[in-house]
Amino acid sequence: MSKHTISITVNRQRHQMEVPARRLLADLLREDLHLTGTKRGCETGTCGACSVLLNGELVKSCLSLAVQADGCAISTVEGLANGDHLHPLQECFMQCGGLQCGYCTPGFLMAAAALLAQNPNPTEAEIRKALNGNLCRCTGYTQIVESVMRAAQRMNAN
Amino acid sequence: MEHSTLGKDTPQVNARAKVLGRAQYAGDIKLPGMLHAKVLRSPYPHAKIVRIDTSAAAALPGVMSVLTGDDCPKSLWGGHHKERSILARDVVRFAGEEVVAIAAVSEEIARDALDLIRVEYDELPALFSPQESLTAGASNIHTGRNNIAHAIAFDKGDVDAGFSQSHLVFEQTYSTHPQYPGYLEPMATLAHIDVDGRLEVWASTQSAFLARARLASALELPVSQIRFHQATTGGGFGGKIIEDANSLVAGLLALKSRKPVRLVNTRLEDFQAACSSLPEQITLKIGMSRDGIILAKEVRIVADCGAYSGLCSEIMHVSAMRSDNMHRLSNIRCHATLAYTHNPPHGAFRGFGGSQMLFALNSHLDTMATKLGLDVVDVHLKNAIERGEVSAHGWVIGSTGLKECIAQCVESVPRARGESEAGDKKRRGWGMATAMHVSGNRTIGNWDGSTVVLKFHEDGRVLIHSGEADMGQGAATMLSQIVAHELTIPLVNVHVVAPDTDISPFCLGALASRVTIAGGNAAIVAASAAREKLLRFGAELLKVPLEQLELANGMVRSKTDPTLSKTIGELAKLHIWREGGEGIQAQGSWDAKTTMHNNLKGNVASAYSFAAQAVEVEVDTETGQVVVTKSFVSDDCGKALNPMAVHGQSNGAAAQAIGWTLYENLLIESGRLTNMDFADYTMPTADALPRLASGIVESNDPNGPYGAKGASETAILPGAPAIANAVFNAIGIRITELPITPEKVLAALRARADQMESARG
Amino acid sequence: MVDFDFLEPQTVAHASQLLAQYGEDARLIAGGTALILALRQRMLQPRQLISLTKIEKLRGITVDNAGTLRIGALTRHSEVGASETVRAHHPVLAGLARVLANPQVRNQGTFGGNLCYADPATDPPGCLLALEASITLESQHGERTLPIADFLVDYFTTAIEQDEILVAINVPASKANSNALYTRHLRTAAEHRPLVNFTSIVECEGPLCIDARIVTAASTITPVRCTQAESLLRGKTITPELVDAAAQLVETQISPISDSRGTDDYRRHIAGVVAQRNLRKAFGLENA
To answer: Is B503 helix (H, G, I), strand (E, B) or coil?
Structure first.
């Protein structure tokens, strides 16, 4: 039915594109912009694998229509690293075993990035609360929490 | 060995791709002209398909293919029994069974088309429990066979004499509920016909070769006509072996449409399409001496495999037999029955039938220890089988660190009991449990081996070809560590090629905790062969006798004159550029020195891993809530090749066990799943778990690579009973039916209060 | 999702007009956290989706001269939680908005959308009832204000008219010496929707309870103001026994829903426990 021309900035790059009204933001990223780092893991907005930052705030891109993001700036996991220079969160997830199968990882990285932007020194309990919109089935979360804590330390030291 | 990472915390070799969002899962891969598939599933647990009208769907612009059971090959697929059509023919046997498959130019159009299909069903009476389906006169779920999918019976020693010699004989029935694997990546497949007319598939799988064999048989193609790639796989937990129809439906659509077709399960579908773990009712009768020695054991199991039996026969074998081998037993008797019902199929799940039985067994030992006034820890220690012993089923115990595992747990989680700091309404309790698992299992056929092929680039870097699957557990990292260690090169100089049936050597894949022991040993053999080639060629080039050469720091060099050396890169290049030259390739195979079961006896696995877990819980006596406040799992993995990965497996296993025990309750009402989404089927989130901790015990198995055994499955096994035992310790209530819900705890507390009231009255 | 038109009116009047024009085929969308789930599962199949995000009037958090807090319907939960104004005037509401659901939903979902969805298993409605909040509805024909109790009619049903738009939530000033306490109970730690929640707003002079407004929600189809328990407490010297009796009244007064997340008996029992724990804390009888 209705199609919309939207203007959207993704990972600092501007795009102008036509999307059908029913296009999910997650599908716009994955199918139209080929940014498949953002994952889809459920239909109920529960798993958090599709989490991205929308104007700096953590959202689930499967709960948003692409048209709703018109005029917004979006950051996905592909935008976290600076070229080959990994974001401290990415480094720490690797080094602390904060990932196994990796499917939830982009969502966790974005959720952790949103947390550290708001609260650079979170406690373990705060980290666990801040990540409760994301599911991981592999790690039992211990090493994810460690990854976030270590990244926070590293970011604060710089 | 400055470069060796063996025994050191090592980030996964594919972690960088994963944190960058570059790893390609099957649902991320696109081909030009690719179609998107959707599946229409049966809403009825049992019905005759009277008519299917697909005309409106087929007429929808953008729809390219609409298939029904009539379009499927005659061959049926399945595990123990070949009994299932890719798309249902004539009859549906569970709610969720695949009936119509559609491929269209977009996912939304395919979904729109589903709404246009009209299926006329004639609903038939359905059987929802083994009790119903095993009743005399119950109708047969599969034509020509009764409703017993499998039965196991054995009687060893003299069980009755054992019971009569016992100081305490105790019998109790336990029941376990199904658990959905819950991997974050729903099943996905991309299939197309390649330029040569072969079927090429990328899928999320735990075993590329078993998946290909199944696909070939179901599509009536020779295996050689299929090229099966394992895409990056977002978790498996047993659910992505060969029991789901995802790759079959995608393959059929590609074959019929002659177009690339991608089928990605929605989560809703995945709940219906994937097998959840096998629910079992277990009656356990154990006789013990006054000091806690098990003198006789009798087990009765009734399990519900659902409409199709998949791997459930093998799973029930594990429930029936495996835990016998962790104890020194002589008198054991078992009768186990696997029944068909019209419930959604159950199947393989991490632990493969171990969790069910170990819930019963550990709960039972705890109860009996209490009744005998013994410390349950002593009961476990006294009965534990030792290294060098042969179990009642003929298993040769080459290594066991169970006692050390128990010691670690007892030390790490202090035995707290009584009121919590949060007030007298909350009671604290402590519980522990033990477990055993296999590393490999000679059951699929008379081979439990693995092959690794190493191919050297001209710059000296090495490609590792193996068909063993990494679904997140770290197989690729393990293989890389071993090859890099053996060739004395940095980890970054080796690269594991994802399983591809055209390129990788035949392997069985990630099941039965076999990858480290089988793939790891094969990697050592292959690397040794490569080292041999490098040294021989080095001797030729350097004109130094072979015995005076060594491979060190990535070069072949003289032991006496270090200036005489050639790097692996130089050797690899020169090995080609000479008369009669070739690129360096080496291959190594390894097969387990095990035997297939003969009359339910035989040493089926190269090694056996053990684990123990202790937990502290807090039970809110007013709300019935159970919260795990401390958890420590200790895994005897033989030797931790990558401790960080082992801890990750153990903590993840503990979380999954806690989920099964307290949070996850798959509701099946009259054969229909009613909570098939993550909002209602609640897996643990970060704030629903304590800081899970784990320990490693290295018992150095003689058959393991560097002593290593499987790690990960064992660690999921003791969680549920440890929690149940801790709940008993906290409030004196024994929960014998999982899950432990607040409602059950409250009801039990209330029943006890009523009982005490009436006793007083 | 079935295909639809996406419309973005700039004014309430225009939105209302569109609603009137398309009738049952149209649906309003604010944050979309609940609606998109329903669309994706095709439980709802609107032909027109009318987005409210361009209507400035639905935004903002202000306080009028009488001290009434006005929360624009489009205000997201995270904005309510972070708002200095809300924290100053009704900290209980800000606190609730900071724990509701999960961070993503708090950043996407709106306060107005939450109320219009009328899902019992959520946080704000019960608390707003205890705060005696009202809501402002507007259509092309005018504006009306309804007490929240009259707005929430039934399970997933509100008193909103077909062409009306929820514009704002109004929360009257609290008395200087009153204390509000919100408690949510999750069935298990892995569930993130409250099984039961309970709000108490009590006014005391020493041990004497001058006034109490108490509401239990989430296990009943709509939030329930526990008037019997309020009467029992009002004007009395607070003792543990009195609080227990009030909690007992909460338990008996309600008719809980019964579903896969809990039977009515279980929910009733938990409602009593949560009431007791909340009231004990509210009246300073214990910390728990």
So the answer is: coil
Q: Do A1 and C105 touch (CB under 8 A)?
A: no
Query: Subunits that touch chain C (at least 3 Cβ pairs < 8 angstroms)?
Result: A, B
SS (H, E, C) chain A: CCEEEEEEEECCEEEEEEEECCCEHHHHHHHHCCCCCCCCCCCCCCCCCCEEEECCEEEEHHHCEHHHHCCCEEECHHHCCECCECCHHHHHHHHCCCCCCCCCHHHHHHHHHHHHHHCCCCCHHHHHHHCCCCCCCCCCCHHHHHHHHHHHHHHHHC
Model pTM above 0.90: yes
B315-338 pLDDT per residue, tens: 999 999 999 999 999 999 999 999
Give every CB contact of residue A83 below 8 A, 6+ residues apart in sequence.
none
φ, ψ of residue C9 in degrees (nearest 5): -65, 155
- Residue type at B571? L
Residue B680 is classified by DSSP as T
pLDDT band at C288 (very low <50, low <70, confident <90, very high): very low
Instruction: Say if residues C275 and C250 touch (Cβ distance below 8 Å).
Output: yes
Q: B656 and chain A: CB distance < 8 Å anywhere?
A: yes
Task: With both helix axes pointing from N to C terminus, report the angle between B719-731 and B643-658 in degrees, rounded to the nearest 10.
Answer: 50
Q: What is the pLDDT of residues C150-174, one digit of tens each?
A: 999 999 999 999 999 999 999 999 9
Q: How many contacts does B have with C, using Cβ atoms within 8 A? A: 55
Whole-number Cα distances in Å, C148 to B39, B215, C126, C136, C171: 44, 59, 9, 10, 10
Contacts of C3 in chain B (CB under 8 A): 108, 112
Query: In a 10 Å sphere around its CB, with 0-12 CB exposed, 13-18 middle and 19+ buried, how is residue B16 labelled?
Result: middle
User: Chain B: nearest CA to C71, how far in angstroms?
Assistant: 28
Q: Give chain C's mean pLDDT.
A: 96
Over residues B147-191, the pLDDT tens digits come to 999 999 999 999 999 999 999 999 999 999 999 999 999 999 999
Percent of chain B with pLDDT over 70: 99
Test mutation, A1, A101, A135, chain B, max B CBs within 10 A: A101
Residue B444 has pLDDT above 90, yes or no: no
What distance in Å separates the CA atoms of residue B719 and residue A48, rounded to the nearest whole number?
26
Indicate if the pLDDT at residue B421 is higher than 70.
no
Alpha helices by DSSP H, listed for B192-311, are: 208-219, 246-257, 267-273
Q: Residue C32: name the closest of C1, C70, C71 by CA.
A: C1
| Interface with chain B: mutation pick from A50, A95, A100, highest number of B CBs within 10 Å | A100
- A19 Cβ neighbours under 8 A, 6+ residues apart: A3, A4, A6, A28, A32, A66, A67
Average pLDDT over residues C107-123: 97
Q: Is the pLDDT of residue A122 over 90?
A: yes
Q: Beta strand pairing status for B294-306 and B332-340?
A: parallel
Nearest to C104 among A67, A68, A133 (CB): A133
B519 DSSP 8-state letter: I
Provide the b/e sequence for B353-374 (b: ≥16 CB within 10 Å). bbbbbbbbbbbbbbbbbbebeb
Q: Is B61 exposed, middle or buried (0-12, 13-18, 19+ CB in 10 A)?
A: exposed
Q: Which pLDDT value is given to residue A37?
A: 98
According to the model, what pLDDT value does residue B80 have? Answer: 86
Helix (H, G, I), strand (E, B) or coil at B158: coil
Q: Residue B48 forms beta bridges with which residues? A: B91, B122
Average pLDDT over residues B191-209: 98
Q: Which of residues 75-134 of A touch B (CB under 8 A)?
A: 76-78, 80-81, 86, 90, 93-97, 99-106, 109, 124-125, 127-129, 131-132, 134
Interface of C with A in 57-86 (CB under 8 A): 78
